[in-house]
Design a protein that fits this description.
Elements lengths: L1 E6 L7 H14 L4 E5 L5 H5 L11 H6 L4 H4 L1 E2 L5 E4 L8 H5 L8 H7 L8 E5 L6 H9 L2 E7 L4 H18 L5 E8 L7 H13 L12 H5 L7 H4 L4 H15 L17 H12 L2 H8 L16
Parallel strand pairs: 1-5, 1-6, 2-4, 2-5, 6-7
Antiparallel strand pairs: 3-4
Helix pairs in contact: 1-12, 6-7
The protein binds adenosine-5'-triphosphate and magnesium ion.
Length: about 300
């Protein structure tokens, strides 16, 4: 089971649209897919027409009440495409999780509880922030897919994201990779998108997907019809773009390690160092070495008399 977090701290950059339509494109390629709505806004849950009346348990209950993920999962109109829904309660999850032990590993443990073969792919739709919900997603994922709206300041947030992914890899999830950066909402008419993509490629090279998701009003209309693009308008450019993305993601699948239970990560080197140093050096020796004796009659370490 490969877990992919769809991430960007900016709002409105195509994360949810990508989770839904990449998920549906993977199902069309014969994969079993679970979409996890990790955003309290619940856009993914609404997008796929999951009736709030049908939601007895949501991601909130999974993360905070210990409800098994399987119990909260609902099916969609597309066979093979399931949703772990969000609920407005999830807005409180960041504060409620803060004092809890292992707070960043809750989602990872919940997904492990599904068993290794429940799904081929799990796509995590993150909120537009880098709080505990996004951290839970990065701790559970084998890789991150960053959606990048091709606008002028696109590169600014990217450096911070790159740094956060590195920190999570170092301290929480050593297996976390960066699967790719996906240009979204690309306006094919202007030069701006091309210039932005060229600049991102200069910095990140082949990590940038060859697929670009063009602006296409059909993609924006599909949520109003409570379905994905392949059920709404399979012949539109948006459907073609997400089909191409699914091909590219499958070609890079080996970069997304399977979710497996692991031993907790080793403590950071700084903590180990301090622990090793303190008990070994007896204090009196340290003082004798560090502070040279002054002439008779002065205190050890006192400055020489002028
Ligand atoms: N390629 C596209 N063409 C046209 N409209 C798009 C496209 N991609 C996304 N949209 C629309 O842009 C808006 C923002 O997209 P989306 O909800 O996927 O972004 P998001 O990153 O998930 O936002 P948030 O951070 O608020 O969750 C939505 O109204 C969506 O329908
Ligand atoms: Mg969203």
């Amino acid at each position: 089971m490969r877990v992919l977090a769809i991430l960007n701290q900016k709002g409105g950059v195509g994360k949810t649209t990508t989770a839904v339509n990449l998920g549906a494109a993977l199902v069309a390629r014969g994969r079993r897919v679970l979409l996890v709505d990790a955003d309290p806004q619940g856009n993914l849950t609404d997008h796929l027409g999951v009736d709030p009346a049908r939601i007895e348990e949501s991601l909130y209950d999974v993360l905070l009440e210990g409800v098994p993920a399987r119990q909260a999962v609902v099916s969609t109109a597309t066979a093979g495409l399931d949703v772990l829904p969000s609920h407005a309660d999830l807005a409180a999850a960041e504060q409620e999780l803060a004092p809890e032990l292992g707070r960043e590993l809750r989602l990872r443990r919940a997904l492990l509880g599904l068993g290794p073969d429940a799904y081929d792919w799990v796509l995590l739709d993150c909120p537009p922030s880098l709080g505990l919900l996004s951290l839970n997603a990065m701790a559970a994922a084998g890789a991150v897919l960053i959606t990048l709206q091709t606008e002028y300041f696109a590169l600014r947030g990217l450096g911070q994201l790159d740094q956060i992914v590195r920190m999570v890899r170092e301290h929480v999830n050593p297996a976390l990779g960066l699967l790719g950066i996906l240009p979204t909402l690309v306006n094919p008419v202007t030069n701006l998108a091309r210039e932005v993509i060229d600049e991102v490629r200069t910095h990140y090279g082949e990590v940038v997907f060859a697929t670009r998701i063009r602006q296409n009003v059909r993609l924006a209309e599909a949520p109003g019809h409570q379905t994905h693009i392949f059920a709404y308008d399979p012949a539109c450019p948006g459907a073609a773009d997400y089909r191409a993305l699914a091909e590219e993601v499958l070609a890079r699948a080996a970069q997304v390690p399977d979710l497996v239970p692991e031993a907790p990560p080793a403590p950071p080197p700084a903590a180990r160092l301090r622990f090793e140093r303190v008990p070994r050096t007896p204090l009196p020796d340290l003082v004798a070495e560090a502070v040279p004796e002054g002439p008779p009659g002065t205190l050890p370490g006192a400055p020489p008399a002028r």
